[in-house]
Specification:
This protein is 40% helix and 14% strand. The protein is an alpha/beta fold. It has an 8-stranded parallel beta barrel, surrounded by 5 helices. The protein starts with a helix and ends with a helix.
Length: 360
């Protein structure tokens, strides 16, 4: 009897580990828990795959990767006659060596786009014919280089206006080409790799008014027989949104067009999604409190339950960055503020939200 009492603390510890989803002892990762549902991906940098700890975490947890910045126009094609292939090549090589899928991101966007695309040598805006030819050359070179190695591309990114009274964003792409740049980007990408799955990608797609404008664009593309295969919901969310109702409505709305849906840039900030400077929130503290931890876990559990319920429509879920140690939200929308948005903490350990995502 005395020996049993001595063993009791050890038994209690083992019980807690088991009830927590075997957080420490299990070698299973997100990709294993969701093996019967959809690939689980993550956005990476060249540093991520070189750092031994981060690379090990990637290989344990994920079976799809997206280059966070390396394939965007500015980094990969800084001058008309020059491409920077090194970073993108290293990410694709890492994926191939480890049998990981790759999503290409992105081919046409209004940001991180080199100015040479839009101007001639005299500094004047080029005409539509010139700009579309430059877009075609870019897409043929980039998609062609990775043909057969990248299974899906975010072809056009964020073309819908932020202003709810407008339809398309008044970017230089739109000013010069009208909406034709969207149609042509998909046509060029399909011609460059007929087997690649082609996505339109945008944010705030769960907010009703923006959802309907995205739907309007996608229906227009489908009606015109443009080769768009899916819609990417960026999913830069918070513990305050989306609601389950809005998320389900969004998935069903886009699926009604015969499109696949992917969650392409998932993170869950502990702050509301707005751009006000820190000075407007004097009581805000950059602290991951137990209350915020619980709210985040609840929200992650909810959205993943929805994802599982719509596995016939959702063909992939990708997180935007790996751990809370470094995320793009450290710089935006409030520079220097920690958002704690991911499933792994700053020490690369699984958070409560992780356990809620895998325990189903």
């Amino acid at each position: 009897m005395k020996r049993l009492w001595l063993l009791l603390p050890i038994l209690l510890i083992l019980l807690r580990l088991t009830s927590a989803g075997q957080e420490i002892s299990s070698t299973k990762g997100l990709k294993d828990y969701y093996g019967k549902y959809f690939p689980i991906g993550v956005a990476v940098s060249p540093y991520s795959i070189k750092d031994k700890q981060e690379a090990a975490l990637i290989l344990r947890e994920f079976n799809s990767i997206t280059p966070e910045n390396a394939m965007k126009m500015g980094p990969i094609h800084p001058a008309e006659d020059r491409y920077n292939w090194r970073d993108a090549d290293s990410i694709v090589a890492f994926a191939q060596a480890n049998q990981i899928k790759v999503r290409g991101h992105n081919l046409c966007w209004h940001e991180q786009t080199p100015s040479w695309l839009f101007y001639d040598k005299q500094g004047n805006l080029v005409n539509k014919t010139v700009l579309l030819q430059r877009l075609k050359d870019h897409i043929f070179n980039v998609v062609g280089r990775y043909k057969g190695k990248i299974y899906a591309w975010d072809v056009v990114n964020e073309a819908i206006a932020d202003d709810s009274t407008q339809f398309l964003r008044n970017s230089l792409w739109y000013k010069i080409c009208g909406e034709d740049f969207i149609f042509k980007a998909f046509e060029y990408a399909h011609e460059a790799d007929p087997n690649a799955i082609l996505f339109y990608n945008d944010y705030n797609t769960e907010r009703p008014e923006k959802r309907e404008r995205v739907y309007r664009l996608l229906k227009k593309l489908k009606d015109a027989k443009v080769p768009v295969n899916g819609v990417g919901l960026q999913a830069h969310w918070s513990v305050y949104e989306p609601t389950q109702k809005d998320l389900i409505t969004t998935i069903k709305r886009f699926a009604s067009l015969g499109l696949k849906v992917q969650i392409t840039e998932l993170d869950m900030s502990v702050y509301p999604w707005e751009k006000n400077p820190r000075a407007l929130r004097p009581n805000e503290q950059d602290t991951f409190t137990p209350d915020l931890e619980q709210k985040q876990a609840d929200e992650y559990a909810m959205v993943f339950k929805v994802f599982r319920n719509y596995k016939d429509v959702i063909s992939g879920v990708t997180f935007w960055n790996i751990t809370d140690k470094h995320t793009w939200l450290d710089e935006y929308p409030v520079k220097g503020r920690k958002n704690y948005p991911l499933l792994f903490d700053q020490n690369m350990q699984r958070k409560k939200a992780y356990l809620r995502v895998v325990n189903f």
